[in-house]
Amino acid sequence: MIHSFDSVPYILSRFIALEGLDGSGTTTQLTRLASRFKEKGLPCRTTCEPSDGPIGSLIRDILSGKKKVDPYTLAFLFAGDRNEHLLRDDSGILKQLASGDYVITDRYLFSSLAYQSVECGYPFVLTLNRYFPLPEHLFFIDVPVDLGQKRLADRDGRDIFDRVKTQKAVKALYERSFNDYRDKGMQFHRIDGSLEIEEITDKMWHIILPS
């Protein structure tokens, strides 16, 4: 994994990552931002983690409770999926960026630092992810845990990380990761996730393309 990124810029221009607790609205904003790009005639690809690749499919089964693995195995799987997500020859993030597209991802390495660190410990998960390049813009859609839980109540399925106690730990680990990456050159933006959906989209859009 280390050698895969020797020639890759540490900050990936036009790469945008959305992060937040479960129920924060990252998936909704992914779709809305993509629509804004389309309206402006700007090339944009959307993606997510876990990815739609074979490792990502396995991770989804684990998160849903269909399959069970050791927490450390899951952390390795997320790192492996991220490696493929970036480097896939057919539709990898690096290839899409090289073609001039904007790429927006619903979750990236900060989700690993927040979620997998609950059981595996932050230093271990940081070691697995420390060599991955960073997005130009990282948006953290910040919602209180109770608001996220209220939104999750309307969903059909829950995953293994979306309980209140876990989400409180996840939020603290998110903050730790943001502090660690504060001076790495990435642009970090905290967005109030309790705002109206349209207002959140507007705020992010004017940051990405201020003119």
Would you mind describing this structure in some detail?
It is a single chain. The N and C termini lie far apart (38 Å). With 211 residues, this protein is α/β, with parallel strands linked by helices. It contains 10 helices and 5 strands. The chain has a domain at 12-47 and 100-208: 3-Layer(aba) Sandwich (Rossmann fold), CATH 3.40.50.300. Strands 2-3-1-4-5 form a 5-stranded parallel beta sheet.
CATH superfamily of the domain at 12-47 and 100-208: P-loop containing nucleotide triphosphate hydrolases
> What order do the strands of the largest sheet run in, or round the barrel if closed?
2-3-1-4-5
Helix content: 40-55%
- Derived structural class: alpha/beta
Characterize the main sheet: 5 strands, parallel
**Total E-strand runs:** 5
- The SSE order reads EHEHHHEHHHEHHEH
Can you tag this structure with a few keywords?
single chain, 5-stranded parallel sheet, 211 residues, Rossmann fold, 5 strands, alpha/beta
